[in-house]
């Protein structure tokens, strides 16, 4: 009798467990995920960071839990648009991708945020769609005060003999047999980037009286003297917060070197390279589609000072440029989000592209 009762109980439990498994919800498949790097205070209603304008303007009212993450990082609206703020960095990208509650294989990604902007190419408040994200971290460095006389600076590729040259021997890492594996330029889907730029290029950007006043310090021949613009150009990520004309020259050269002369340095920040490393790994593992990743950065401050302003005075002086960059980032990206959602039946299986 006890054995019969035990078998009956186990059968009942198995039925309940089976019912729970079959009735469990299918994984959620976001249409677009907007990724921001940080936020000031609350996500809404106070001074904005990189996340708030997106949360408020896209009506991301629902908070969504992510397995293993203790703080709120994910929001959504009813149209399948999600916002992800990386409060602790790219580990949260991994947590989201590895959470079985989500299916990200058809998701489009827009990595957003503010940056230092190259004044030789664009002005504060400008927004750029990237074709490459270039890693500025792993390199060799000599003190610029002790470099050979014919060197422009003491930064150069690991395995190379001097600045602005690629490594001759890829095996200096011990396990690499192809120089291409050493690349510091992470390619994005350029057709998708051109398509996104085409949708946003005529958006009206905001301006700011104080930023306009500061632009007057730049020579009229430089783009830094012009109102905010939308353009295509590369993002350089480096954990070092560098500043100044000498390092700006290095950044221009570094982007040109690793993109084989095709890329143009426009934006610099401290996290794009680590985010894209994580995304490349998730793509390798099959969790995301790398052809659906976009990077949209906006300039909050110039990457070098205007004439007559000292380096120490200019370094980190983002001032009103931050709010302008937050604002224009969302303005430029909004038409792309709207188009993907509006015609999701097509874009779900067909990644858009422009020549």
TrEMBL record:
Domain of life: Bacteria
Residues of the signal peptide: 1-25
Annotated InterPro entries: Pur_nuclsid_perm
Presence of keyword Hydrolase: no
Keywords per UniProt: Signal
One Pfam match: NUP
Official protein name in the record: Purine nucleoside transporter
């Amino acid at each position: 009798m006890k054995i019969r009762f035990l078998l009956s109980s186990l059968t009942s439990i198995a039925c309940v467990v089976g019912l729970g498994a079959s009735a469990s919800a299918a994984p959620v498949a976001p249409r677009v995920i907007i990724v921001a790097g940080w936020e000031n205070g609350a996500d809404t209603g106070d001074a904005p960071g990189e996340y708030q304008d997106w949360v408020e303007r896209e009506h991301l009212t629902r908070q969504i839990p992510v397995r293993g993450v203790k703080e709120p990082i994910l929001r959504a609206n009813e149209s399948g648009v999600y916002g992800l703020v990386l409060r602790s960095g790219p580990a949260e990208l991994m947590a989201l991708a590895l959470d079985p509650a989500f299916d990200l294989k058809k998701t489009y990604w827009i990595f957003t945020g503010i940056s230092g902007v190259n004044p030789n190419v664009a002005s504060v408040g400008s927004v750029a769609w990237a074709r490459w994200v270039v890693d500025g971290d792993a390199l060799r460095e000599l003190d610029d005060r002790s470099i050979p006389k014919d060197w422009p600076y003491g930064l150069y590729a690991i395995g190379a003999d001097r600045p602005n040259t690629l490594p001759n021997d890829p095996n200096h890492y011990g396990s690499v047999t192809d120089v291409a594996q050493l690349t510091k330029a992470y390619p994005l889907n350029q057709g998708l980037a051109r398509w996104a730029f085409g949708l946003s290029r005529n958006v009206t950007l905001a301006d700011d009286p104080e930023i306009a006043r500061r632009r007057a310090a730049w020579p009229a021949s430089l783009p830094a003297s012009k109102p905010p613009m939308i353009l295509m150009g590369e993002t350089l990520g480096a954990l070092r917060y560098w500043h100044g004309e000498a390092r700006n020259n290095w950044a221009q050269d570094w982007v040109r070197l690793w993109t084989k002369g095709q890329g143009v340095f426009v934006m610099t920040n401290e996290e794009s390279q680590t985010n894209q490393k994580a995304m490349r790994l998730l793509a390798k593992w099959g969790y995301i589609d790398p052809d659906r990743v976009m990077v949209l950065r906006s300039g909050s401050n110039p990457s070098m000072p205007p004439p007559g302003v000292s380096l120490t005075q200019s370094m980190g002086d983002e001032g009103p440029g931050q709010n302008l960059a937050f604002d224009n980032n969302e303005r430029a990206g909004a038409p792309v989000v709207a188009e993907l959602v509006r015609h999701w039946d097509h874009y779900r299986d067909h990644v858009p592209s422009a020549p």
